[in-house]
Amino acid sequence: MIIIALAVAAISMTVTQSSLFRGFRQVLDYKIFRCPYCFAHWVSLLVWSCYPKTNVFDFVINVFATVALSVLPMLAIDYLNTRMDKHAKILHSPHS
User: Transmembrane ranges (predicted)?
Assistant: First the structure.
């Protein structure tokens, strides 16, 4: 499940944050395509629906547990991006 959560996080961050899908997000201007957490629910649902069917309870638990685990790498990526932006501003600011 950890591997699946990492994949869900990577897909969600790529679709909602990267410039690769910017045009797609502009055409479909829905919040789901701008929020990695929201999009992760749909990605997780899609991934777990490809697995052999079990009972509904296990399916729902797997979907939400995967989303919960995928939040951690998304937070790490967001934190690193914020720090990189901060350092880039410092490097490019005029020295007094």
Answer: 59-80
What separation in angstroms does the CA of 95 have from each of 56, 68, 69, 92? 61, 43, 42, 9
Closest CA to 71 of 50, 43, 47: 43
Contact 33, 15 (CB under 8 A): yes
pTM above 0.70, yes or no: yes
CA-CA distance, 71 to 66, in Å (whole number)?
9
Compute CA distances 10 → 30, 73, 93, whole Å.
20, 8, 32
Q: Given phi > 0 = left and psi -120 to 50 = alpha, else beta, which region is 39? A: alpha
Would you kindly state where each structural domain of the chain is located, as residue ranges?
A: 2-92
